[in-house]
Amino acid sequence: MTPGRPLRVLCAPDKLRGALDGARAAAALAAGVRAAGGTAVEHPLADGGEGSREVVQAARGGRVVPVESVDALGRPATARYGLLDDGTAVVEAAEAVGLAALAAAERDVMRASSAGLAAPVLAAVRAGARRVVVFLGGTATMDGGTGLLAALGAGVRAADGRSLGGGGADLAHVASVDLAPARERLAGIDLTVAADVTSPLYGPAGAARVYGPQKGADPEAVEELDDGLRRLGPLLGVADAAGGGAAGGLGAALLALGARMVPGASLIGDLTRFGDRLAGADLCLTAEGKVDASTDTGKTVRAVVDACAGARVPCVVLGGTLTPDAHRLYDRGATAVLPIGPGPRSLDEALATAADDLTAAALAVCRLAALRPG
Amino acid sequence: MTPGRPLRVLCAPDKLRGALDGARAAAALAAGVRAAGGTAVEHPLADGGEGSREVVQAARGGRVVPVESVDALGRPATARYGLLDDGTAVVEAAEAVGLAALAAAERDVMRASSAGLAAPVLAAVRAGARRVVVFLGGTATMDGGTGLLAALGAGVRAADGRSLGGGGADLAHVASVDLAPARERLAGIDLTVAADVTSPLYGPAGAARVYGPQKGADPEAVEELDDGLRRLGPLLGVADAAGGGAAGGLGAALLALGARMVPGASLIGDLTRFGDRLAGADLCLTAEGKVDASTDTGKTVRAVVDACAGARVPCVVLGGTLTPDAHRLYDRGATAVLPIGPGPRSLDEALATAADDLTAAALAVCRLAALRPG
Fold first, then answer.
1. Pairing, β B2-3 against β B371-372
2. What angle do CA B218, B223, B228 make, to 5 degrees?
3. Which residue of A has its CA nearest to B291?
4. Where are the domains of chain A?
5. Please, which residues have CB within 8 angstroms of residue A116's CB and are 6 or more apart in sequence?
6. pLDDT at A4
7. What whole-number distance in Å separates Cα of residue A11 and Cα of residue A33?
């Protein structure tokens, strides 16, 4: 075997949670590609949750517009949206009412409200956006989107006619929702919602039971919130739609406003024009922190593997942790599935060296892929 | 890129200490090669220490001959030698006076003797062997080879003329060594000694200081043994020769008998005819438990990388643990250096899954290597 011409390699990782965001992961892969003599294109991806707006704008550019708003606890805060050149606005719920912006002791799902998401959405509409994409995931809220709806002008009322402002504790009192004023403000807007989960609004797989605990809800609060979301579902007219439970029920509220819900990973692929970048690539490298059974059911890496298979571009998957399920990706057409790290060690050690490890793995992979049977 | 013809892959790992012997490691690699559609040849290697006789006979066949002898503590035990078809006998010191054969509580370097190595060597000579190869390493002894010398007929005496039988405690009393009777019994024999270390007999890098503790010597015993070995060196006429400290000083005793000392890894390569196997291979996979700075200074993997570079066969190194030094192998011509395991986890977990991990890594590597730039 002899080396061929330089490989053209598309570096398209998701974030490695707790270690690297998508851009840093792509840069680390690209460093390895270049060390092996290849040509690297950095194309970080996301699953529709945190980091999605940034990833879209890294690929598409456009303006980043700050908007005065409130955080999930109602305190003044700056949210933002991105405005792409084709008139599409991208808004990330986690950048408005995110969990990561709160100290651990501040997490309070009974109080947290999605109201702060309204300001960037309305600002984008006022700025002339014809399409608004909302990325869900990573919010501090469990209010079924009632905060957002009220802030958009919808009537969210208790049985005695009193207006409710949002917050998990209000769910027990919601008796009626008048969506018309909010729908009017978004009239003519193509509203798209990207979710990385398919949880319904309530029930055993619903928002409160699955995501309540990680947002700070104790078992009693989980039950109260699940009851409240079950009460809200029929009022929104979306009952048990898949993805309704995304972002503490924001999914259901946006569906009620006429939004189209799409899987986050494939939407990110479309918005970042991943397919165009794939044409002409000799090889695609993708990566995530943990490659497991959930990877096979719709995460970024699975979307990359599918797109590569369709485009007949070899695809190598690198995982910080691989479970045995990771190898299902071979059935989907992955060329190789490889661990990133150098062997037995603690999780902290693995996180600390993730960039070097990715670079090293990409270097190794590219040297291999550049071989041709003689 | 499109797949090429099936790859012909030589699977040539060292043992993965604590997990797999060389043969099992080669089989695990071969399973991955075959899963990727390649043709695998299993060629386990060793560094001249434990497992060396087995590896040589796996490649060369010949007879395995059991010999009644004694273990390092003088108890009746069966040693063995291998007799190859060309008249070469291979004897592994660890199979005669090995540390692994003793319970932890039995380890006693002051008492342990290399005498038990004499029986298989003499049996091989009696059986007509013209060349005797002794693999050092892995012994329970620290007697400077005095036990072996005495058992071969050499006069090992105290100042009062009393014969000493070997054992670390005797070193303090050795006043003269008459090698002639032992040399006579080995007359006409081409004696080759393979060592995987370059320690001299005594001193800061000597046998007692470096290897005493892992054989059970406490700090006081280490000093006593080092003094004894320093006393023995001039009596053997080999003083501070490199490798004299191998196997508790057996290296020095065999050098004194006229043996030629060679690095274990390259001798194993010669004896197993690794070069012949390399001709015609598209790719070579090698592996060891820990790839670190010591790999670059003469272990099996380094010898494989060198041989592959000479034969222009791509070589991929897989390590259970990779330290940053592992990447020096790229400078030696390695095609790729990859971790075996699936990420952060304990050493015990890594050891338990080593075979599956190797298979998975080999599969991935071969799929990559089978690509050809389009």
1. antiparallel
2. 120
3. A342
4. 2-45+273-372, 52-265
5. A69, A70, A71, A72, A74, A77, A79, A96, A97, A147, A151
6. 58
7. 9
pLDDT tens-digit series, residues A95-110: 999 998 899 899 999 9
Beta bridge partners of A247: none
Residues of chain B in contact with residue A339, where contact means CB-CB under 8 angstroms, are 339-343, 361
The counts of H helices and E strands in chain A are 15, 15
For chains A and B, what is the number of CB pairs under 8 angstroms?
A: 131
- The reply to whether residue A342 touches residue B327, judged by beta carbons under 8 angstroms, is no
Q: Which of the four pLDDT bands, split at 50, 70 and 90, describes residue B373?
A: very low
Instruction: Identify the DSSP state of B121.
Output: H
Domain A52-265: give its CATH architecture. Alpha-Beta Complex (3.90)
Tokens of A87: 């008139």
Q: Do B371 and A372 touch (CB under 8 A)?
A: yes
Q: What is the CATH number of domain A2-45+273-372?
A: 3.40.50.10350
Query: Using the beta-carbon criterion (under 8 Å), do B344 and A361 form an inter-chain contact?
Result: no
pLDDT single digits (tens) A258-278 = 999 999 999 999 999 999 999
Give the separation between CA A143 and CA B39, rounded to whole angstroms. Answer: 59
Task: Identify which of A314, A316, A346 has the shortest CB distance to residue B344.
Answer: A346
CA distance, residue B284 to nearest chain A CA (Å): 12
* Phi, psi torsion values for A245, nearest 5 degrees: -85, 0
Whether the CB-CB separation of A191 and A254 falls below 8 Å is answered with: yes
Query: For A344, which of B316, B346, B374 is closest by C-beta distance?
Result: B346
Q: The complex's ipTM?
A: 0.76
Instruction: Give how far Cα A71 sits from Cα of A100, A103, A203, A235, Å.
Output: 11, 12, 28, 26
Which residue bears the tokens 């191998």? Answer: B246
Task: Give chain A's contact residues with B (Cβ, < 8 Å).
Answer: 1, 4-5, 7, 282-283, 290, 314, 316, 319-323, 326-327, 335-347, 349-350, 360-361, 363-365, 367-374
Q: Residue B44, SS3?
A: coil
Residue A133 C-alpha, separation from nearest chain B C-alpha, in angstroms: 35
